[in-house]
Please model this.
Amino acid sequence: YNEDNTLTNPLYNKTAFRYSGAEDFSIYRYSEKYFGNSSDPNYLLRVEIEEEKTKRSVQKNQAVSKLDYEMIFSYNLFNINKDCVVFDKNILSRFSYVPKSSGYNFGSDQSLLNMYDLAVKENFDQFISFVSDRNISSCK
Model:
């Protein structure tokens, strides 16, 4: 409720992006929304994603009844014109998931996809917030 919705995104339509690490299709869906599309970018954003799944609750028959997900987004923002790094940051996203019959329960599978979407969206929001507070025109 106290968030400042007047933040501007200094990277929008000025950034090319590359992803590596854990494959998550939510990233590609939100990339254009957050970074736009540029034929002549000023910045290159490299994002490496590491994902770790931890079984928190295992039943007697060895079925997992709760999984914790931890995703680490390592951002590296490179100024193409000045040939230098202007910003780098690691941002952590976490969520828990209670699987039902995997592969047979559309609602459960869709719920997991929604959690990935939310984790990516919140992580991108945090990154844009950090970048907006910094001077990205100078080298690090």
User: Anything to note?
Assistant: DSSP finds two helices and four strands in the chain. Residues 10 and 18 are 18 Å apart (CA to CA). Residues 106-132 form the longest helix (27 residues). The mean pLDDT is 84.
